[in-house]
Design brief:
By secondary structure, this protein is an alpha+beta fold. The chain has one domain (4-151): Beta Barrel (Lipocalin), CATH 2.40.128. Helices cover 18% and strands 54% of the residues. It contains three helices and nine strands. It has an eight-stranded antiparallel barrel. A hairpin with a 3-residue loop joins strand 8 and strand 9. It is globular, with a radius of gyration of 17 Å. Mean pLDDT is 85; it is low at 1-8.
Amino acid sequence: MMSFIHVTLLASSLLFVSVNKSFGADFYLLMEKCKTTIGALEVNDDNLRVLDGDPVVSECTRKSKTIECILYDKKTEKVINDKVLYHIDIDAPPLLIFSDTEKGDYFAVHQTNHAVTLITRIVSDQFLASKLCVGIYATDTEVKELNMRKQK
């Protein structure tokens, strides 16, 4: 059974999932806070910055040793990428760790605590960057349960 705190956090975070998405995904990853650290490949006083990152919502389906996700911009609710494939690196409940082929995106999910952390690596000829996000993990069943509670 989910605690009151988990229900409250999920209810506030899953609003656009429940309103705008069709159900059927196995789970959702809702990034709440992100920070991006950027190191410019030039020498000056402003070559290291820390900025707020853009949070993303992932609607994911697990298929054996892979996870397929649709990524949405949390602010605009528009699809960023309609099919991202990840490979499971560690599946030792309650811990689930998965990443893309290049290890550019690296997720750690604690299923019991309903918590997720994401590290994204960005490489260019002008800079290197790392985006770190924390958020909420929720199963499709939990989202449906929250919707039923809201309708009462």
